[in-house]
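Consider the following assembly input.
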Amino acid sequence: MTAPLRVAVVGSGPSGFYSAAELLALPDLDVTVDMFDRLPTPFGLVRAGVAPDHPKIKSVTRVFEKTAAKTGFNFYGNVEVGRDVDAEELAAAYDAVVYAQGADRGRRAGFPGEQLVGNHTAAAFVGWYNGHPDYCGADFNLAVTRAVVIGNGNVALDVARMLTMPVTALEATDIASHALHALRHSRIEEVVVLGRRGPEHAAFTAPELEELGALDGVDVVVDAADLPDAGGDDSRGKLSMLADFAMRHATPGNKRIVLAFHTRPIEAVGARGVERLRVQRDGKQHNISAGLVIHAVGYAGSRLAGLPFDDRRGVVCNERGRVLGYPGVYVAGWIKRGPNGVIGTNKACARETIEVLAADARAGALASVPAAQESLRRKLVEREVVDFGGWTVIDEHERAVGQVSGRPRIKITDVAEMVAVSQRRLG
Ligand code: NAP
């Protein structure tokens, strides 16, 4: 009997779990998967990116749990590749390594004044309301009446929704408690969403736009002059939805989401923090007063020592998931193709990578070093690794605490507390 193919998967978000599922389903290869995540909690953007009012999207974790239950799967939570172990160690200890760590850096639009206090990336705001340990201490000025969101993607709409939707609706979600508390006291009345191009080029999708128009207590404001003449391609129905919004009347007392198209930010101005945003529209400059500016203009991956990186695209250099010149090293998901697509897009992306990996395995091109396996094992023993059973304890704990206050879960946001809770099953 030949030894199983030992594969490390770095990152436990959708692309990591879809890669693991593909690996464990290979009919002709016996595979073990060790999945690493720097957090003790799995699921990446499903836990820390998907908006709390989208529980259906989050239910994909049930599919991932099935993969985690398979023979040959191991989870190593609370182990950061690049800090606790490096890429060379992994490459030596495993026959193959699949990097699927996503794109963690929020981009900024790139104009003078964008470093003023009060400017934030959507990555920080989304991480904050979803309880990601890295962003829990962030401070968003919700004592102002207007916020500006830059960008016309689905993340921009998520942010606008979170800032305006009724807190009573948020109470029924797994939004982080600190964010729920802050939003309960928020004075934001208007969110202006800036699209630098016209609505026909907007990246957001129809269901998300429709959802915006259905929010209780929120008017969506659109200037009919921004809409292209009828007759253009509206196969996705977004333009007719926007035309409908443009005809609606304001409801006294409602909050507002203003979708401003053809409007490009040129400078953030303020004495100590941002006070107003200068924008260009129709060849003229205008000021929008705002004490909170969120840049929702996309994400970028982070460079990892030991892997070739394309700085412009923010991805690891690869061809169909294979990292050229680095035998046995592969990528999947946003770190492979850039930050685009929905969760399901990662399934086909992972399949392509694992097909390439399997072809290399069949050709005998993959190999690990037994001594390196032993030294990695010793290193991991020294860390407080959280395995999938440990995560299950955290999961049950969060749900039980949530139940007390009628919420689906209350997330633990501190890594040390996550580790401590995960160890309770041992007691
Ligand atoms: P995105 O879809 O790529 O949108 C980025 C937006 O930022 C675009 O409108 C882009 O405008 C704009 N932008 C870029 N640079 C800019 C600049 N310098 N100044 C002004 N605007 C600028 O990215 P995203 O919203 O971060 O979403 C990432 C992926 O996650 C997308 O595929 C999205 O659909 C997905 N997602 C899905 C959901 C959902 O299914 N509910 C929720 C959240 C995210 P241009 O087009 O003019 O470049």
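DSSP finds 16 helices and 18 strands in the chain. Ask yourself how this observation constrains the way the partners meet.
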